[in-house]
Here is the input.
Amino acid sequence: MTLSSKLSENIKYINTELPVGTSFDLITRDMYLGETKAFFLGVNGLCKTDVLQQIFSDLQNPLYVPSGQIEDIFRYVRSKIGYAQVNLSDSWETIFRNVLSGPIALFIDGFPQAVLIDARTYPARSIAEPDLEKVTRGARDGFVETLLFNANLIRRRVRSPKLCFSMHSVGTESKTDVAVAYLTDSVNKALLQKLSQTIDSLQVSALTMGAKSLEELLLPKRWWNPLPSIQITERPDVACSYLLEGHILVLVDNSPLVLIFPCTIFQFTQSPEDYYKSPSVGTYFRLVRFLCIPVSLLLMPLFLLLTAYFPDFSNRWGLLSSGFLSKSRLFFYILVVEFILDLFKYSSSLSSGKFSGSLSMIGGLIIGDIAVSLNWASVEVLFYGAVTLLASLSISGTEFNDALRLYRILLIAATGFFGLPGFLISLLLVFLSAATTPTFGGFSYFWPLFPFNKKALGRLLFRSPTPKAQPSSIWDRGNVRH
Here is the structure.
């Protein structure tokens, strides 16, 4: 629906569609520009009041309209409104979406267009390093909940004229801004087109949880696929490194998370810490992190399997120092320790930083000692559980780590109930679950292992020196599947 050239009809329509006078944050004002009537509409708190005061003070100056009447709105906007971000619109949908996002609308009698002045400002927290992706050295900034700030953090690092941010709107009620960032010369055009079309076709009322909600809408998954299909980061340096390699970034307003497309399982084993150390040290810790994946997944199930079903092997290797324990008691011990460790990890992550560290350490020592004394656990099970927890915490991707935890619980349960056949069958189910994990665009989740790419796999396993790690070419991953 378009505007009317009569100001009174436009004001009547505004009062019908918006709760003007009822909602305290909607501000309006009748004005005169010379002898021409005008009407102002905005949201209190989302506008730069000092900027608007200066603009309206100038516009209401009689010298701005010597003849008394505004005859050409296009010329008037270009010559009298000196603010940088100003445009005209004749669509009510566009006007309401802009006003509720922060810009103000100025309606002038006699013209079927509204002047949109983007003098918005948002409440925003300061830029700080994200808690889940800390590094000992390197940049200390992180994405925040304001989309424009996040785009500026990316533009500050990638000052290329080929960097583009295309804007989309998602949610019939929320009208959430979603920006797709890419380099025009290196992006996969088919993947970009598919991603843009998918975002525009989403039928949802609101992105309740920001980027996480958009992730689930873009790529619905089945319950037996707990592994993450889209990489998420809060670090601008990580996002820009993937951007320069031909990936696509998706930024969501009100969310400090950035989605990275396409995605493979090996991306969750990477850490920016590797690149803030020397190549040899970075390679060593990267290989240690790779080793932590099978340790986190298999240590506890293998311990249960060997001690409960192969006692001779367990005695030969000294896996148990307390002598013989029945299968059911070992199974019970492991389940108790898994629950306690998950409880400590979850409670410490949600507790205040002032006492979460001491709470988890002291609580772990006290409860662990009491659990052994009451025969709710054994020292060996606590030790292997602690090693498993340390291996899990060394994996940089939290979503990937949580998926491994579910796989580990499945392996423990199947091993405890069915022994070696249960362990082998559940291990096969884990591999099938990982192999069937969907990815956006239909790329292989295990690239560059399958399809095999020797050079790309070497870059993943070993930290290359900076001169050799420059993204001079974009890896070929095949065609996008629709």
User: Anything to note?
Assistant: The mean pLDDT is 86. The radius of gyration is 29 Å.
